[in-house]
Design a protein that fits this description.
The chain is 35% helix and 8% strand. It has 22 helices and 16 strands. β1 and β2 form a beta hairpin. It comes from Pedobacter steynii.
């Protein structure tokens, strides 16, 4: 039969019989049952729709910190060692963070689909099958067919994009190879960076083309279609692609000038081109216009149950729930994968003092460098604030009534005082507070010294750094009377408007416009309760004119992005595209002394790990070595 005679060659020239991946039957997670031929798979509208959702099922699970390549693989989070069986769904991200990546058996292998990754090439194959057969169902309405084709073109582009970000120059699989392909046709090669970018960009243009046809501007049927692709989502991913392509890793990077195919074809263009930034700026503005026209806006928290809360609490919840409130108005593209595991991994034990509940693990531990990243309350870096005591940041201080984000009369380090609202919204720590919908008091107290309610009680399920990722915990998480945990699932934000604003600001600045970016930075800062860039730097910074020139504004934009997008899987990729990973990921990882009980002992900085990053090797994933043996035309990434 045709389907089982069709052979797929996943770049390594290994022939694989096409088999449908098994999964539970859920919306956007549906696979055709008992389908012996492609003709049957597209025999009618219903079967074709199942195949559409098979294409959606190829999307990586970015909602899980153990399978998102940008989460536990860098320096945002750290983990206790030795890790015990069952502590995590996959240890592969931590192997990468600790410099233990391998070309023999790569961790998080999204090329072949082994280990902690699934083959994205198989997903691309399914997209091609869909596009090649979607004309067959005779009961499919034209408007539906147009939309489905646009969705699958987007998915095909997105999977190529995902591989490009991980591996750099990749093969382009625009059509599936036929069963009678020659040996030479099977041995595909990598395409130059610019060719890959143009291919993905053009495919996204095709997906977003047309007015009133193809992709909708917004989802109308909220009951059955949330999670499906919209035109603003396609345009936003195009903006992200082009900003990445314009960044130093890909734009004029001479480190890879010798990286070539076996036939001598160069894979990186070593010449810098400002037009790439201009193209990225135009794409970002088009995406912003489309999103805002569809009703997307920066999220503001205003539920009736907290109308009496003070302004600081409302700002904190605006920051947290821009991520955690399900399908809120800032979301442009969200994954429907469950965030329950993510929330349990992030949340410290809060509710059952002094008992220990294994369901709330608190393992997703931000590092000390992340705590130092956030601004002072004056909206400038703590290293630049003329009025903030940077030299004594590790000295103990006592909390007063003026420090409303912390517990009065508690002791903690100076680092935790007079910080911006995003610091208190994103991170919980010993002595901080946490607002939850279910609690009976204004806030829950985080107390995490040894054997305290949120602290270490055994050799697993605790924060190794003393910090917790408050930003990723939906405030409706509750523990029932019998100890059962209920989490309110929210879509993982693959793209939200704040992210897009920052991409636009960056592209504008790099194009030579140092004025317009301030408008978009200040929109984000206003939501975070901060003064404008101009006011903050003029009045509080040791470098008051920093924002007036391109280099200074670049530093401001990059730190603003690292703060606003903290813990959302963005930092890992941003440091790479900026070519800053070699400096940032070659510094020690620190935390607090979580195995102690007194204020002075606990608030002692301890070394957790000496992280290393080998440049240029570690900027890209290795291709599994066996692939190169099967297909000698395929070249390995530099350094591997």
């Amino acid at each position: 039969m045709k389907l089982f005679k069709t052979t797929y060659l996943i770049l390594s020239a290994m022939a694989l019989t096409l088999a449908m991946p098994s999964c539970k039957k859920a919306y956007l997670d549906i696979v055709p049952d008992n389908v012996p031929t492609l003709d049957n798979a597209f025999a009618n509208r219903n079967e074709a729709e199942k195949y559409l959702f098979t294409c959606y099922n190829a999307l990586p699970n970015d909602a899980s910190p153990d399978f998102n390549p940008g989460m536990n693989t860098g320096d945002e989070f750290w983990v206790y060692t030795p890790v015990q069986t069952g502590d995590y769904a996959s240890l592969e991200p931590f192997n990468i963070a600790q410099g233990l990546q391998s070309k023999v058996s790569p961790a998080m292998n999204y090329w072949d689909g082994s280990g902690g990754g699934k083959s994205l090439w198989l997903g691309i194959r399914n997209c091609n099958i869909f596009l090649e057969n979607i004309d067959k169902p005779i009961d499919l309405q034209p408007y539906e067919k147009e939309r489905w084709i646009a969705e699958v073109k987007f998915l095909k582009a997105y999977l190529h994009w995902y591989l490009f970000r991980m591996y750099g120059p990749i093969p382009i699989i625009d059509k599936n190879l036929p069963i009678d392909a020659s040996a030479e046709e099977v041995k595909v090669i990598r395409q130059p960076v610019d060719s890959v970018v143009n291919y993905i960009s053009n495919l996204l243009d095709e997906a977003a083309a047309g007015a009133g046809t193809g992709l909708p501007d917004k989802i109308q049927n909220l009951g059955t279609e949330l999670g499906r692709i919209t035109k603003p989502a396609a345009l936003a991913i195009k903006a992200r692609l082009l900003v990445t392509a314009a960044s130093p890793l890909f734009n004029g990077n001479t480190d890879f000038s010798g990286f070539k195919n076996k036939d001598g074809q160069g894979l990186f263009n070593p010449t810098y081109d400002i037009k790439k930034w201009q193209r990225a700026a135009a794409a970002s503005k088009a995406a912003i216009d489309a999103a805002e026209a569809a009703g997307v806006g920066l999220y503001k928290f205003a539920p009736s149950s907290l109308q009496t809360a003070d302004d600081a609490t409302k700002i904190e919840m605006s920051i947290r729930n821009a991520v955690c409130e399900k399908w809120n108005n800032e979301l442009i593209f969200g994954s429907i994968a469950s965030t329950s595991y993510l929330q349990r991994t992030a949340c410290p034990n809060l509710f059952l003092a002094p008992q220990f509940d294994n369901g709330l693990r608190g393992q997703l531990a931000p590092t000390l460098k992340m705590a130092e990243l956030f601004y002072s309350k004056n909206g400038v870096p703590i290293t630049e604030d003329r009025f903030w005591n940077y030299a004594n940041r590790f000295n103990l201080r006592t909390v007063t009534a003026q420090d409303s984000a912390m517990q009065k009369d508690y002791q903690t380090v100076g680092l935790h005082f007079e910080r911006e609202p995003r610091f208190y919204a994103d991170i919980a720590f010993d002595g901080s507070k946490m607002y939850m919908q279910s609690n009976q008091k204004p806030a829950l107290n985080i107390q995490s010294k040894l054997e305290q309610v949120s602290g270490k009680k055994q050799t697993l399920y605790y924060s190794i750094s003393g910090y917790y990722t408050k930003k990723l915990i939906n405030w409706n998480l509750v523990i029932g009377a019998n100890g059962g945990i209920t989490t309110e699932n929210y879509p993982w934000p693959i793209m939200r408007l704040g992210d897009l604003y920052l991409l636009y600001a960056e592209a504008l600045n790099e194009s030579g416009d140092v004025s317009t970016p301030l408008t978009y930075l200040n929109k984000i800062r206003a939501r975070a309760g901060l003064q404008t860039v101009e006011s903050s730097w003029t009045n509080f910074s040791t470098n008051p004119t920093k924002y007036t020139n391109q280099a200074g504004l670049r530093d401001i934009i990059q730190q603003e992005r690292l703060i606003e997008m903290a813990f959302e899987g963005s930092r890992f990729w941003d440091l790479r595209r900026w070519k800053k990973a070699a400096s940032q990921l070659n510094t020690p990882i620190y935390g607090w002394n979580v195995s102690t009980k007194t204020f002075p002992d606990y608030n002692t900085r301890v070394l957790l790990f000496n992280q290393t990053f080998v440049s240029p090797r570690d900027y890209f994933w290795p291709i599994q070595e066996s692939n190169l043996q099967v297909n000698p035309r395929l070249v390995q990434n530099l350094g591997w």
